[in-house]
Amino acid sequence: MKKVFAVLLSIAVLMGAFSTAAFAQAPAEPTEAVTVDWERSGFDHQDGSDCYFNLYLTVNEAASGDLEVVFSDAVIEMLNDAGANDVLPGFTMFVDVYVENASGHVYAYQSGSLDVSTPDVSGESNLSPFTGFDGQLLPYSRFGAISLTHPAIMQLYNVRRSSDITADMLFSIYDELEKAGYTGESALSNYMLDYYKETDGVQYADWDDLKAQNPDISNRFAVAGNNGIRKMTVGKLKELCAAHPEIDPYVYVTGDTSSDNNVVDVQVKWPEEELASLSYDIFYQDMLSTAFGEECAQMNPNRNTAFTRTRGIGDYMDHTSELYQSADAYFAALDNADRLEPGETLAFNTVLTMDGPGVGNQYQNYNFAYYHAISLSQIDTSYTVEHRYYTSTDGAAYELDGVVESEAISGTVGDVISADQIEKLETYEGNRYNLVSDSGDLTLVLDAEQNRIVLEYYREVETPVTPGENPDTGDGNGLLAAGMLMFLAAAAAGTAVWMRGRKRMRGE
Fold first, then answer.
1. How far apart are CA 439 and CA 457, in angstroms?
2. Would you say 143 and 130 are in contact if contact means Cβ atoms under 8 Å apart?
């Protein structure tokens, strides 16, 4: 689940300052694998309208296995804690990030793990029925309000200044649309589309056609201008909502509503999907941008919007795009990215910007966030070598004599250990064995229990025969009897020869 921190975007008409007070927070208990070192993180300095921050994260001692390192939560929190409750269009936030490995393991950047995306809002309670370009149902706080400064809206009300549009007029917008000949659930969307058709002299088939033929639609839809917030008492707000139930779900209020006499700030969000989704899509695909490394220097949301708008948060969500592939390669090429040893640091630069000329007052009190994370894979592991010894006696089946197992041997995930290169131990308990087989080459994985090479040694022995023992029966008496018979037979044969000799000598 993506944890969401948000910044409230308050776009002032008058010139304002970006608060840059330094801050520090109590360090978090290192119960998580990766934590922010708030004692060293925060605002560093300001150069004109550019603000510079440092962010230190620690891979804690108890960390193990693959890790997700989330940066955006801390970036947004630093922005909030720096006093940026009134974030102005055109702001630029440079961040130097340091990931320090205080664990006992070796880590490496996991290629393709870079995640730059819109925040996960599925857990928010106040979801509208509208869907953004990222497929999410949008909270009412995440799309724009009716832009009172848009020429089409002022033309609808027949006013010269957006400030002439009162709260009563704003809530009765569908009454005005009906007078102009537009009714139904898409009355405002159809009216706005017809405005662009007339202005451009092009008969756009629909909003998709309009956007396809107008890459600069963000400039024309998110129009800057006077304050789009209307102030009223809570009692007055209740009256307007009761009189215009079709508007009620899209009323966005900031302030204390506990008493009817309290004065609150009121906006009416775009009440139709084409317009609400467009305001969300424009913001995340063009207006809120980020970059890394050398590209940070090119990120000027006021004078180089042609570049910054190609680095919108939503532009990184297509992992097949050249933009994503380039950013992923940047992280993979960082010092220590391929092997972050204990005590070493992974460092990079990033920047977060908000478009200056394009963000109009429909984004006042806009609650925005984003998501940026990478994954680090643990790559240190170990393996063992197991030597097994077998003996066959007198041609019988081989039986296991014993096993000798090595101490754990350090290695790196993905390394290939060749069994041929393992030192052979051919003597076991004083006996000589021959290596007959092995388990083959081993590719190391993180789970050391699976990293095992087995070598098998064999020998053959015969049982020695004791003199006087029948090798078949083991009966010594049988051998003795057989020996006596052989002796008597030999003696008899000798006597017969001697007798024949004597007869010859006597002439018989």
1. 12
2. yes
